[in-house]
Amino acid sequence: MSGRPMPCDMAELGTLFLFEKLNTEQLERLCQEGRVELFEPGFVYQEGEPATCFFVLLEGTVVMSRRVGSDDVEISRTSQRGVYAGAMQAYLNPGPDQAFYKGSLRVTEPSRFFILPAETFAAVLRDWFPMAVHLLEGLFFGSQNIQRAIGQRERLLALGSLSAGLTHELNNPAAAAVRATSALRDRVAGMRHKLGMIAAGPYARDALETLVEIQERTAEQVAKATPLSPLEASDREDALADWLDDHDIAGGWQLAPTFVQAGLDTDWLDQVAAAVDEQTLEGAVRWLNYTVETELLMNEIEDSTTRISHLVDAAKQYSQLDRAPYQVADVHELLDSTLMMLSGKMGSGIKVVKEYDRTLPKIPAYPGELNQVWTNLIDNAVSAMDGEGTLTVRTALDHDHLLVEFRDTGTGVPAEIRDRIFDPFFTTKPVGEGTGLGLDISWRIVVNKHHGSLQVQSVPGNTRFQVRLPLTATDTSEEPS
């Protein structure tokens, strides 16, 4: 948008705080190489356009905004003479990142600006303030490098924490599988020994066939056993122990819990007793006990190895190994994998509640980077709850956006710092426990890269971080730095 040309007054420029220290020769150069224009209400420039000019407000009211999704979110509004915007970093040598306006500028009333072309602005800064330009370049690029280095360090620390949690989670089922395998070896050896005793004993052929048939049905029953309440299990164990004692089988109280766990009862024992005589009943029962134990141990091994497989799948989902960086993704799968990866860090004191709307569609996104957002938000919630509380993860449809909300019962975010929590390096954690980049990185991933929004609502005991992501693809060319 172009304004109406107007005369440039050196004296007026000299009254602005930005130019008040300039001498007459410098003010004269500004008027010669710059211009004054009057803009009617509307946009002066818009975000994403080439950054060709540096604007200084002489008179009027300006509104600065950033694009979030399809909306322009107001950043500031002012009528202060001398405020500036536009190609403010044109003096930097490498220009690609500074080649476009980072936000939009509009006026709400007829407003006059002093305008310098970006090349002229860069030239006068280098001519008049060479030392300042070097300092500003060092500050700008130094801050970028520091932020990049600390960001990498933070990701390494997060990776270390996740690795420790994953190792802990993998250790439990792996150890269970090892224990079950060792016990299974003993039970199989015992079964072979007992089978030899049965083969050498006075069993009729039809009795052995019946026992083998009962063994097969027993194995099938173990697979179909349903969990019992503690009271039901105790009552059934008592009944089985009494049955075994009545039939003079020693140590019935040791055998009963195994049979109950397999879903067997006194009716099953009656079938065994009917197949053999009293002299061989105990041997037959103990042989079948080995069958039950081996089946239960194999179930335990299967459960453990399945758990390991799920953890590995969750790790792959979380890290997005062997997946394209930009793809159509199920947000619930990403949330579940992140929660599983962080389960070790949450401990037993934090209850996780999932309120998912499973009817929500998949969305175009960068899944690996969204997982980083979930990690940062969950980590903050866990820290705020200090090891005890409830974390609620909710998904819902919010107009043309998908809402992901993380609600915790922690201490909350004080109102006086709520506007600063997404600033780089701002942290409320003690020294050494946080870099202050987690929420800044999350904000840039959600807002800059996915064109969504990240907001917080907080009172003590109810803090909600809300991520809104577009349901349809948008321009995702802007990478979070």
Shape: rod-shaped
Overall helicity: 40-55%
**Largest sheet report:** 5 strands, antiparallel
Widest β-sheet, arrangement of strands: 1-2-9-4-7
Cα-based radius of gyration, to the nearest Å: 36 Å
Low-confidence stretches: 430-436, 475-481
- Find the count of extended strands (DSSP E, 2+ residues): 16
What does the average pLDDT come to?
79
Strand content: 15-25%
| Count of DSSP-assigned helices | 13
Order of helices and strands, N to C? EHHEEEEEEEEHHHHHHHEHHEEHEEHEE
Structural class: alpha+beta
Number of domains: 3
The rounded distance between the terminal residues' Cα atoms is 30 Å
How would you describe this protein?
The chain is an alpha+beta fold and 481 residues long. It folds into three domains: 4-128, Jelly Rolls (Sandwich), CATH 2.60.120.10; 162-311, no CATH class; 325-470, Histidine kinase-like ATPase, C-terminal domain (Heat Shock Protein 90, 2-Layer Sandwich), CATH 3.30.565.10. Helix content is 50%, strand content 20%. The chain has helices at 10-14, 24-33, 118-128, 130-200, 205-224, 230-246, 252-261, 266-275, 278-319, 331-341, 343-346, 367-385, 438-449, and strands spanning 4-6, 35-39, 42-45, 53-59, 62-68, 71-78, 84-86, 104-107, 111-117, 327-329, 350-355, 363-365, 389-398, 401-408, 453-459, 462-470. It has a five-stranded antiparallel beta sheet. Strands 11-13-14-16-15 form a five-stranded mixed beta sheet. A hairpin with a 2-residue loop joins β13 and β14. The longest helix is centred in the middle third of the chain and has 71 residues, at 130-200. The model is unreliable at 430-436 and 475-481 (pLDDT under 50).
